[in-house]
Design goal:
It contains 23 helices and no strands. By secondary structure, it is mostly helical.
Length: 527
Amino acid sequence: MADDAQTGSDQPRSAAGPGGPWLMTAVVSISTFMEVLDTSIANVALDHISGNLGVSIDQGTWIVTSYLVANAIIIPISGFLSRAIGRKRYFLISIALFTLSSLVCALSTSLGMLIVARVFQGIGGGGLAPVEQSMIADSFPQEKRGQAFAAFGLVVVVAPIVGPSIGGYITDVISWHWIFFINVPVGIMAFLATAAVAREAPVLVEETRRLREGGIRFDWAGFALLTIGLAGLLITLDRGQTEDWFASPLIVTMATMAVVGLGGMVAWEINHPDPIVPLPLLSSRNFAICAMLMTLLGVLVFGTIQIIPQMLQQVFRYDAYSAGLALTYGGAVAVVMMPIAGAFTGKVDTRTLLFPAFSVQAVAFWWYGGFSVESTFASAAWGRFFSSVGLPFLFIPISTVAYIGLKPGEADKASAMLNFFRNLGGAFGISLTQTLLARREQFHQSRFTETLNGLNPVFGQDLARTTALYDGSRQAAYASIYAQVQRQAAMLSYVEVFHVLTWMVVAVLPLILVLRTRGGRGGGSGA
């Protein structure tokens, strides 16, 4: 068995070449790390990019939205594309498109040019993570999969953690152009290494040949409905708070597109003989639960990556680089814990890993829920430490258990769906946290300002002291007090958001108890 695990020879759908499955996993992870890093690295550079291109910050956010939408549309159909084109060939095309688009992003001289390049970058990047996950699932036996997914987990969990600090450093020290330029040499290296190390299994070559001989019937109606629905949903989630939700004609239009597109897509795909989006996988209780848990994981990873640096900048006045470092320092433990989680996965009951790991997430959010304006950089890093300790014990077991009971050949479909739900969870998490922050901050600020009047003796005393500090300037004193009110209101709103995240984690704990953790007849991954 050790030799088999080394060569992957007992896995007929293996993507491992002569170097074995571990070398293949290491090589294909390079491009996926690059793509996942780009989901967060550009966020901290928006101010610089917008200023350099002469547009507002509000317009500049379309740089992130365009990538998110294009990426999300491709992920669900990546399984179909890998079967129609060939898995290795599709992976190489995705690397090439992502790399070339990164070069165009770096050379962009206008917002329109950058947005178009980001769309193509999202299309190229959308196929990388699902196809890599499919390659890993098909190249290792079930008992070895946990260790293999540890390598993939490093990509998905660690890249967003280090993204803000890397992006902040590059932007501050060099230029925002280099957050895209850096992808070019990495992409070229990843393309050449993958071409040399990965292989296309004969059984997959035969499946692609049969599919082409029978005539590739692309589900254009399903794809159109998916595109309309996802574009509407993600733009609604991403822009809702900025546009004041349903008071905006844009959001009303996008929400209508989401309901019509996704509703129509579900109705169409359920009755389609060869659906482009593999919704029938959700009829498996195990896979459906894992999809829900992966969605929550997306909320936790991407939602907190957005609001923790935001809190450190807004309340504690850190710059973008320092705020990113709080995530990186605290999240570094994930690198250590990932192989440990991989070693345990498959050897112990998965539920005994998931339950305490989710519980640790709840503790981490409760820790952040105890923050005040007096909290320190170390406190923020410790909160991220608690969260990062548990993340590997979530991602790897969920990714492993999701394939149990699936038929041979369904790994690519399952990988696409898991990555789709993770990204959807990230979009929902960012939208939820930003909306709660804005609404609760407005509420607390309103309540605070009600007490700022002459009938409140405490306010009168504070105003007199502050006025004296500003050499008798009553206007400067009012401005100082109002700034304190804003800071306290913001802090309370962050605390409440972390409490909401805590209870979201607690609410899913019962689902873990009904997970199936052992494969049945023919179960597995499609291996």
